[in-house]
Amino acid sequence: MRHFLSLKDYTKDEILELIKGAVNIKKEPRKLLVDKRLAMIFEKNSTRTRMAFELAITELGGKALFLSANDLQLSRGEPIKDTARVIGSMVDFVMLRVNKHETLLEFAKYSKAPVINALSDLYHPTQVLGDLLTIQEYKKEGKIAFVGDTNNMCNSWLIAASILGYELSVAYPENYKIAPEILDIVKENAKKSGAKIEFYNDKTKAIKGKDVVITDTWVSMGQESEKEKKLKDFKDFMIDKQAMSFANQGAILLHCLPAYRGYEVSEEIFEEHSEVIFNEAVNRLYVVKSLLCFLSSIKC
Asked: For the Aspartate/ornithine carbamoyltransferase carbamoyl-P binding domain, which residue ranges apply (predicted)?
């Protein structure tokens, strides 16, 4: 049994297989998981994640069960391992969107069903799968910039790029750092894949010569108390027309949404790239379908 907690647990070939499966299931929808059951546990609210997972299992012929934190005895102090042993014995998959990555690790340790990370404070791997599918569709693979906070999206992209052998430049303020454990993984992966990973405190240096520019909200859910500080720290990191002018001609912009125009991205640039961004959002559906099939050892 395999879990899907981070891309670091998957090989280059497996990641490419997941993208290939998403391409296939997008072209030829099929009911490959008839009567399979997916439990969806949300500690954090969601639009795209819930839509993608619920539609994915439903269109594959299965059933979804939505559980908010308030629906579970976890909110009254039941140990995670007890909840995992019950839910993991009654369904075929468990998807969690959680505040702390440790919750996922504990749940996965005791669950009899595959556990999927739909977002934690450390990683957001299903979003990066959707990004990879979008990049492939727009034929922009290879040279990528990530501009923004050193958050779960940044970590997941560092892991993905280092495994796949991509050229990735990351830009963030001087007083922000990539976690040492993430850097260790990335360096080790890059030695094997030949990936070129660079870090800057200047967005234009990171964006120069790239085919894909990725950004994300500066104030993640649960960090509202840090908003004033974050806006000050990141004031020079907005993706606007001038910033995009440093990218290669025809470069695309990705954003996992929700987007806060006037902060991490300008209104003008967001709307200019809105078709790509909303295709990126919809592609979450297809990579989730592919992932569910993969975890069931079924080829899409």
From this structure: 2-137
Q: Looking at residue 78, what is its pLDDT?
A: 85
Q: Secondary structure of 105-173 in the HEC alphabet?
A: HHHHHHCCCCEEEEECCCCCHHHHHHHHHHHHHCCCCCEEEEECCCCHHHHHHHHHHHHHCCEEEEECC
Tell me how many helices (H) and strands (E) the chain has: 12, 9
Residue 299, φ and ψ in degrees, nearest 5: -85, 135
Q: How far apart are CA 127 and CA 157, in angstroms?
A: 10
Catalytic (active site) residue 284: yes
Q: Do domains 7-124+284-298 and 127-281 have the same CATH topology?
A: yes
- pLDDT tens for 164-185 read 999 999 999 999 999 999 999 9
136 in catalytic set: no
Tell me if residue 127 is catalytic: yes
Of the residues 127, 149, 273, 300, only one is catalytic, namely 127
Spell out where 223-292 has E strands: 252-255
Instruction: For 233-280, write each residue's pLDDT tens digit.
Output: 999 999 999 999 999 999 999 999 999 999 999 999 999 999 999 999
Provide the CATH number for the domain formed by 127-281 in this structure: 3.40.50.1370
CATH assignment of 7-124+284-298?
3.40.50.1370
Work out whether strand 37-42 and strand 93-97 pair parallel, antiparallel, or are unpaired.
Answer: parallel
Question: One of 101, 124, 255, 273 is an active-site residue; which one?
Answer: 124
**CB burial class (10 A; 0-12, 13-18, 19+) of residue 212?**
buried
- Tokens of residue 94, six digits: 């468990």
